[in-house]
Design brief:
By secondary structure, this protein is of the alpha/beta class. The protein has one domain: Collagenase (Catalytic Domain) (3-Layer(aba) Sandwich), CATH 3.40.390.10. The protein contains four helices and six strands. It has a six-stranded mixed sheet with strand order 1-5-6-4-2-3, with helices on one face. β2, α2 and β3 form a beta-alpha-beta unit. α2 packs across α3. It is globular, with a radius of gyration of 17 Å.
Length: about 200
């Protein structure tokens, strides 16, 4: 049992013993219907514009869209460079594209959301939304644990796993998978072999 699991088990037990009906949340984010793209369609342009990310807090500050866009692009490249997907950042986004932007989610523990917003399977466009809630303040370096401020690039790595089509049921629970369920995890630092195998099976 991991230390996180042990801590959460203790917290949950204490909550139940004290009669609380609301248990501690470890949810990473809202996840819409992600679905893989068509197998012949692993190449996508992704609109990542700094101005669209200025509302997301980074190191306690807003208007950090340029740095956030770079971290998001790094995460996109992590998936693109290590799988059969071919993702390219664009900043001139006239027309309809998959894109990343800031979006207010009332639950600050929900760091982001990935969903199909345009079209239908298999010809769809997807969006990754990063939470602009001030309580979701993310950082640009350091580890990523559920009890600390989340590392933004790790969160974006996880969201690009959803973008590729991954959901939580595509892996075995536990460490070693970028898509493991929970709050921000150290395992989100990079795409893992189990996730790569699944993504390459689609593309």
């Amino acid at each position: 049992m991991t230390s996180k699991t042990q801590i959460m088990t203790i917290m949950t037990s204490l909550a139940l013993l004290s009669g609380l009906s609301i248990l501690p949340s470890v949810s990473a984010h809202d996840t819409g219907s992600t679905y893989p793209f068509d197998s012949s369609d692993g190449t996508h342009n992704v609109c990542i514009k700094a101005i669209d990310l200025n509302g997301v807090e980074l190191n306690g500050n807003t208007n950090e869209g340029t740095d956030i866009a770079t971290l998001v692009e790094n995460a996109m490249d992590e998936v693109s460079d290590n799988t059969d997907m071919n993702l390219t950042r664009i900043t001139s986004c006239s027309g309809t594209y998959s894109h990343v932007y800031g979006y207010y989610i009332s639950d600050a523990d929900k760091l982001g959301s990935t969903s199909v917003d345009y079209g239908s399977y298999p010809n769809q466009y997807k969006t990754i939304k990063l939470n602009t809630n001030s309580g979701s303040n993310m950082i640009d370096s350091g580890n990523c644990y559920w009890y600390q401020n989340p590392q933004l690039e790790y969160v974006a790595n996880h969201e690009f796993g959803h973008f590729a089509g991954m959901d939580y049921y595509h892996h075995s629970s536990g460490s070693g998978h970028t898509m493991n369920e929970g709050s921000c995890e150290i395992d989100w630092a990079g795409i893992k072999s189990g996730d790569i195998t699944q993504i390459n099976g689609w593309y």
